[in-house]
Amino acid sequence: RRVAVLISGRGSNMVSLIEAARAPDYPAEIVLVVSNRPDAAGLARAEGYGIATAVIDHKAYGRDREAFERALDARLAAAGADLVALAGFMRLLTPWFVERWFGRLVNIHPALLPAFKGLDTHERALAEGVKLHGATVHFVSSEMDAGPIIAQGAVPVLDADTPDSLGARVLELEHRLYPHALDLVASGRARLAGRTVSVADGPA
Ligand code: GRF
C-alpha cells in the first residue's frame, strides 16, 4: 500500500510510521507527507528521510473547506496514495473527504476512545481520575473521533502524573501502536465489519 501521512506539527508519530515502513517486510510505503501548516516541524524531519513533502495551507482557501480538501485530494492522487494516515493533523475533514476515503483513512487519538474525544485528553483523564489511559487508532468517520476502532493501547495513570508526564507515557505508546495498526490495515488483517473492525490473527 502507498501511504500519505498528514501532519500539522512536530510529526513524532509520522516518524514512527516512516521508521517502521523502512523494514522490508512492512506492507506499506510512506510516499508523501502533507502539512496544512507551512511551519510544521515534521516537514523537515520527513525530508531528512528523503520523503516527498507538500504544504497545502488551509489559510489560502479561506473558509472553503472543500476547496482545501480538493487540493489535498489532488495531491494524494498525484502521489498515488491509497491509504491516508492522520498524525497530529489538526483540521476537521468534511463528509465529502471522509466518505471519499472511508476505509482508507486512519487517525491516532491520544485516549482510549470512546472516552475523551477532542482536545486536552491527558488533562481530562487526570481530572476524571481514571486509572488507565491510552491511545486509539481508528478509521475516520464524519463524526469526530468516533470511527471504527482498529487498535488500542493502555498505560497506567500514576498518582504523581501531570498532563505532561502522562502525555509523554501515552506518546511513547502511540509510537508503537500506530505502526502496528497501520500494519494491520495495510496487510488486510484489519477489516471493516459494519461499525466495527475485525482483526485476523497471525501474519497476512
Ligand atoms: C499525538 O498525541 C496524536 O495522538 C494527536 O496529536 C499528537 C501529535 O503528535 N492526534 P506528533 O505530531 O505525532 O508528534
From TrEMBL:
Catalytic residues (UniProt): H109 (proton donor)
A GO molecular function held by the record: phosphoribosylglycinamide formyltransferase activity
Pfam families on file: Formyl_trans_N
Site for Raises pKa of active site His, residues: D145
UniProt protein name: Phosphoribosylglycinamide formyltransferase
Enzyme Commission code: 2.1.2.2
Catalytically driven reaction(s): N(1)-(5-phospho-beta-D-ribosyl)glycinamide + (6R)-10-formyltetrahydrofolate = N(2)-formyl-N(1)-(5-phospho-beta-D-ribosyl)glycinamide + (6S)-5,6,7,8-tetrahydrofolate + H(+)
Cell inner membrane as UniProt keyword: no
SUPFAM superfamilies xref list: Formyltransferase (SSF53328)
One GO cellular component, as annotated: cytosol
Keywords: Purine biosynthesis, Transferase
